[in-house]
């Protein structure tokens, strides 16, 4: 026995047993009941700010625009082990049921979902005031704002919305929807010399005072926008020119390009001189029937880029007919001061002209639609064959024939000489240059005056 008690292991076991007996003597009150011993394992927990969670309402129809308060104070109790197991604030969800709530302001009870084994001692407050508003969704046109300054010598064109191609949808409570002032996005072109693209440009909603409405829901939230950065440009009217000739027997009825204007790009000085773009040329030799033809736009002086690069031109042709227009007055231009231009052929100053074209065009033609001009600028007194300048409406051609040119015979008369001749002819002279007049002296003049009537008569007959 003495040997066993002196063994180290036995001594350790005895020490543990004595320690447990001493702990029991100190901590156990002989007068306490078993129930009192159990209460020492119950504790209390206080949660100062448990978040209130709204649930049950249709978020597509209503918006929770106000809730007061947003947190509550909770006091719970339970066994220490249970409290330690539910130590997180998320283990004590406080909810308000909005399933049957209507638009407007209302007070509703709060519900606390307690963890297992834990009891609620106190919750303050036990109700919450909420405000529900009806939700509206409306389409809005997106405004694209260009910020920054392009590189020197370049300008930013009008930005475009690449995707989506239509309007954006904005969702807001009904009262807030009436305050929407602008829906926009931005694209920065600072220092750029080529087209800028932003595939994730954020869409922002502003109220009528320019303040961002952060509660707005936008669909889509981002868009794809582009801003062209180019040399200076301007839009000018388009004029289609022709080259070649139509096949025999055909005439133009109409030529209608698909657009009325083109955009030309170049330096500012060069663009100042471009008022009309006539670099689109239609080759009539390739037009065998009515239809739509593609015409390329060619560069002209000072222009670096032209848009569009091709133009659709609708061409209508029809069989050609001819018609002779009579009694078209000829307008005289370029008469010098002191001179008069007189028509010799035709004497009445009216001209007959044969024209050709499509029947639908020629049938509507009148003499007033044709302008014939004869220019006598720089001509001295005398008789001349002067070529005519003829202006006819579009799609009407002049039939010149074998003559090759159109002309009239004109006499240019010096007004002073004509007036002098009229004074001399005011006293009629009889006889011929061979007749010898009677010698009747003129009072106050000598014999030299006897030959003057003969000379005068000779000039008149010339």
Automatic annotation (TrEMBL):
Residue ranges of the region described as Disordered: 416-462
Upper taxonomic lineage: Bacteria, Bacillati, Bacillota, Bacilli, Bacillales
Identification of the protein by name: YbbR-like domain-containing protein YbbR
Pfam families assigned: YbbR
Gene3D superfamilies: 2.170.120.30, YbbR-like domain
TM helices/strands, residue ranges: none
InterPro entries recorded: c-di-AMP_regulator, YbbR
Compositionally biased spans, kind Acidic residues: 416-427
